Predict the 3D structure of the following.
Amino acid sequence: HVFKCIFKGCKVKICHFLDKKDTYSIENMRKHVKICWRDEIFQVADQSRNAKEVHSNFVNHFIIISLPLNTSPNAFLTFPLLSHTIVLLRAEIVCWVCENLQPFEIIKDRGFQSLIKMRRLEYYLLSPSTVFQDIRLVFAKTEQQIAKISIEYDGKLNFSTNGWTSPNLCVYVALLMHLEHKGIPLCIPLDIVEVPKVHVLTVQTAGHLTNHH
């Protein structure tokens, strides 16, 4: 018998051999349910009377829904109908803060907390210091991953620099690494530094003017 997981995006198939000694064992299936559907769902499902009760009470309510985006007919935005675990919540907040350049203190915003707590008063809320520590951890792990990619990359790595002036008249220069991964060109920023002010000193010697930077 082959049992296919119906969780969205999961392609795992659990094989159950009837000619083996462990014919009645479902340990592999139980392990996968804990990983794919999360332990809390497994615990509740394990207490159900039969498969029909599990399917009607859980599967129909916990499948991820997808909504089409107006920007592209083939693009979809997915939402899980099940609340995030604390680990997933921390990961989502790190992505949101970094991608939208939000300050850490946004976590204390009344509107943000109202949206998070809506119909889920028990929902865990992070502190700004926790978000800060999570972002530092993600940054450190990303550095390690980029270093590993640059060392193990089987091909040529190209490096470039790019400079620009921000609205507050500060000049920055970025060091970029370019490579191809699975047919997709990638541009990874390695470092961004602020260019110090350049002072020009004019010195007159023997009738000649010399500029020193």
Observations:
- Helices lie at 27-36, 39-46, 51-62, 86-99, 110-117, 128-152.
- The longest helix spans residues 128-152.
- The beta strands are 2-4, 13-15, 65-69, 72-79, 158-165, 171-181, 184-194, 201-205, 208-212.
